[in-house]
Write a structure and sequence with these properties.
- The chain is built from 3 helices and 4 strands.
- The protein is an alpha+beta fold.
- The chain has one domain: Alpha-Beta Plaits (2-Layer Sandwich), CATH 3.30.70.
- Strands 2-3-1-4 form a 4-stranded antiparallel beta sheet.
- The protein starts with a strand and ends with a strand.
């Protein structure tokens, strides 16, 4: 079943985070991920507000986890660490 990769992010270093974004996109695409929402308008109804929210669709939970664990994504993530505060969850779509 397909899955959603949902990230809530507060960027603290825009230059370093821009490098993350540059590298993360191709890594996500390589693993079958496609962005369906990225830094778009949002309404925070509960919980900690993060001004950047990203949703990508993957073919499966396993594909999303493989992406996260891949060398390409980990290289990108090196730029996000220390440049952002973030939460990331992968949720299977139950259609």
């Amino acid at each position: 079943m397909a899955a959603l990769w949902i990230a809530h992010v507060t960027v603290t270093d825009t230059e370093a985070y821009a490098k993350y974004a540059e590298l993360a996109g191709p890594a996500i695409a390589k693993h079958g991920g496609a962005f369906i929402a990225r830094a778009a308008r949002y309404v925070q109804l509960e919980g900690k507000e993060r001004p950047r929210n990203v949703v990508a669709r993957f073919p499966s939970v396993d594909a999303a986890v493989e992406c996260y664990e891949s060398p390409e994504y980990q290289q990108a993530l090196d730029h996000a660490r220390g440049a952002s505060e973030r939460e990331l969850v992968v949720v299977e779509i139950t259609e």
